[in-house]
Every structure is written in structure tokens, then in C-alpha cells.
UniProtKB/TrEMBL annotation:
Signal peptide range in chain numbering: 1-34
SUPFAM superfamilies: Periplasmic binding protein-like I
UniProt feature coiled coil, ranges: none
UniProt record similarity statement: Belongs to the bacterial solute-binding protein 2 family.
Cited CDD domains: PBP1_ABC_sugar_binding-like
InterPro entries: Peripla_BP_I, SBP_2_dom
Keyword annotations from UniProtKB, A to Z: Signal
Tagged with keyword Membrane: no
UniProt keyword annotation of Signal present: yes
Protein name: Sugar ABC transporter
PANTHER family linked to this entry: ABC TRANSPORTER SUGAR-BINDING PROTEIN, D-ALLOSE-BINDING PERIPLASMIC PROTEIN-RELATED
């Protein structure tokens, strides 16, 4: 047997000690509560880690989906921000998707299917095609998913569990009443252009018909599924709520009738497009533009004189209410139903007698809601 010197024996003892320390460290690591691979901490709207709360702890396993019409329209950008902030506050996970353009139903159908497969507890959706999306929504609800429409009701409205939205007919009525009051005696001879959304989409029909009703068109049905008519409307064009298409639509209308002096637009991007076309034609000071959204840029458009009045709605409120409803459904079994009106306010710096409104200071402080 080989002879071991004292030095050899010392090295052996030290090595054994280090082996015991290593084994203890390994066992301690195995017993720790390390986060599973791939998990992420909830983030606040500012991008930092959300402060832990009892609600956040309870919401960690809840995923909510948000599907918007597009991810470029400022209205839907803000809605997404609001949903993320509300989800962060509850410790929930947010999945998002959007159509490529307003009216892109197939992308929304695919998004619903993907979210159901991913195990979301609820889906918030601003439907692009309010009829065509209904079968996909039914499948999601049949799978136990809570589905809430934001901003735009489906057709029929009860195809979703609930609706959180502006009263879009009222939003139209307000700008119609304002236009009539502002024009005064000239209202009876006004030549109107309507820059609409797309045929058959509920939100577009409601705003268009509300505007004509507010302007004095008789017997307009708030529940109608098609555009109301008025002989004073000399041109109607679809814009998909898009600024470039709004400009083209206004150019087409001016070619059809250069005497147009009142323009209704489905939203503010379309209004800015219309203003660009009017300015290029040297007519921007002769035409009133009224619109809907009341976004921060839209309110600035009122300040700058591009839009005379706009009906302000509140997408951040819609998103927050929707996320909280999904949280309550997933954590408590509470199921929301019916329609919740998230409010609308007419914004203008040129108040009209008999029409309730707020100025642009209020509009700026409350833009997006």
C-alpha cells in the first residue's frame, strides 16, 4: 500500500469539506422558490415592475385578450395602453391582436381562436365586421370565455356577454345639434358631406344616423342597421376611419359638389384628411367639420381650427372596465352583462346656444379618458 504523507492527508480532508459545502448549497437551491423558466414579472405602464398587491398576487394566472380593429388608430393605441395598465394593476397577463385595417374580420377571427387556445379567461374586442365576427365569438363563449365588446356593439348586440361603449348615436346627435345651431338660418340650405366608416358596421351607422337626427332629419331610428338619408347630404364616402382615405373622400366630394359647407366624419383621422383636402382647395375657412373621438390630437385640431367640434369618448375607461370585469369573472365567478355607457362630451371652443359642451381645456385634460 502506498505511503501517505501528512500533506496528502490534509489535502484529502480539505477536499472532503468543500464537497460537503457544495452539496449543501445544491440542496438549498433545489428547495428555493425560484420563478419557472420563461416567466416574467408584471410591468407597470411605465415599464417597471408592478408593486405587489393582494390583487396582483391573485391575478397572476389570469390572462385577458384584447383585439382591436387596428393597432395604428390613436384611439385603439390608447385603448391598448389602458388595458395594459389595468392588467398590470391586477397582476394579470395581457394578450393583444389587431386587424390589418378597419374591416379586417379574418384577422380578428384568427385572434379569437388563438386566444381561446392559449387559455384566456376573457376577450375584449372592438369588432371590425359586427355581423361576421359573431360565429367566432359564439365559439369562444361556448368554450367558457367571457367576451366583452368595447366601443362597437356586435350585431346583434347580445352576441357578446356585455358592451362597454360610448352611446354612439348620442355622440352623433351632439355634433348634429351643434352644426345646426352654429349654422343658424343657413342650416336649411346646408350642403353636407358625410365621410363614413364602412357599410353595415354598427358604430358607423349609429354615428351617421345620430348626426342626421341631431341636425333635424325626422324619424331617424336609433336601432336602424342602415344609413339614414337626408336630401341635404350631397356626397357620402367611406373612409375606414383612415386619414389618407378621408382626404381622398373629401377630394371626391368636392369634385361632385364644390359648394359643400358642412362635413361630418366618422372619426378624427378622417376629419384631418378632410381638412387637408379642403385647405388644398382653398375652402378650409368656408366649411364646418364635426367629428367623433375627442382624442388628444383631435382636441388640438379643435384648438387649431381644423375641427369645429368633436364628441369626446373615453377608451381608457372602456379598457379598464373590461379588464376588471374579466378579473372578477376569473377570480370570483362574477359575470357582467348588458350595456355600460362610458360617457360622451361635446368639445368645442365656440359654444352654441342650447347645446351642452365643454371647452378644449376640459377636452385636453380628459382626452382618451
Amino acid at each position: 500500500m502506498a505511503y501517505r504523507t501528512p500533506a496528502h492527508r490534509w489535502v484529502k480532508r480539505v477536499g472532503a469539506a468543500w464537497l460537503v459545502i457544495a452539496m449543501l448549497a445544491f440542496l438549498a437551491a433545489c428547495g428555493s422558490s425560484a420563478a419557472p423558466t420563461g416567466s416574467t414579472a408584471p410591468t407597470s405602464a411605465g415599464g417597471g415592475a408592478a408593486a405587489p398587491t393582494s390583487g396582483a398576487a391573485a391575478g397572476g394566472d389570469i390572462t385577458v385578450g384584447l383585439i382591436t380593429k387596428t393597432d395604428t388608430n390613436p384611439f385603439f393605441v390608447k385603448m391598448k395602453e389602458g388595458a395594459q395598465k389595468a392588467a398590470d394593476a391586477k397582476g394579470m397577463k395581457l394578450m393583444t391582436a389587431a386587424g390589418k385595417t378597419d374591416g379586417d374580420n379574418q384577422s380578428q377571427v384568427t385572434a379569437i381562436e388563438n386566444m381561446v387556445t392559449a387559455g384566456v379567461k376573457g376577450i375584449l374586442i372592438t369588432p371590425s365586421d359586427t355581423k361576421a365576427i359573431v360565429p367566432a365569438i359564439k365559439k369562444a363563449r361556448d368554450a367558457g370565455v367571457l367576451v366583452i365588446a368595447l366601443d362597437t356593439p356586435t350585431d346583434p348586440q347580445d352576441a357578446t356577454d356585455a358592451l362597454f361603449a360610448t352611446d354612439n348615436f348620442k355622440a352623433g346627435v351632439l355634433i348634429g345639434q351643434y352644426a345646426k345651431a352654429t349654422l343658424g338660418d343657413k342650416a336649411a340650405s346646408a350642403k353636407i358631406a358625410t365621410l363614413d366608416l364602412l357599410p353595415g358596421i354598427t358604430v358607423g351607422v349609429l354615428r351617421h344616423n345620430g348626426f342626421l337626427s341631431g341636425f333635424g332629419t325626422p324619424n331617424v331610428d336609433p336601432k336602424a342597421g342602415t344609413y339614414a338619408e337626408n336630401a341635404q347630404v350631397v356626397c357620402s364616402q367611406d373612409t375606414e376611419g383612415n386619414q389618407a382615405k378621408g382626404q381622398t373622400a373629401m377630394e371626391n366630394c368636392l369634385q361632385k359638389n364644390p359648394d359643400i359647407n358642412l362635413v361630418y366624419t366618422i372619426n378624427e383621422p378622417a376629419a384631418f384628411g378632410a381638412y387637408t383636402a379642403l385647405k388644398a382647395a382653398g375652402k378650409e375657412k368656408d366649411v364646418l367639420i364635426v367629428s367623433v373621438d375627442g382624442g388628444c390630437q383631435g382636441v388640438k385640431g379643435v384648438v387649431d381650427g381644423q375641427i369645429v367640434a368633436t364628441s369626446q369618448q373615453y377608451p381608457l375607461k372602456m379598457a379598464e372596465l373590461g379588464v376588471n370585469a374579466v378579473y372578477d369573472f376569473a377570480s370570483k365567478g362574477t359575470k357582467v352583462s348588458g350595456y355600460t355607457d362610458t360617457g360622451v362630451t361635446l368639445i368645442t371652443d365656440k359654444a352654441a346656444t342650447g347645446v351642452d359642451s365643454k371647452d378644449t381645456k376640459f377636452g385636453t385634460e380628459n382626452c382618451w379618458g
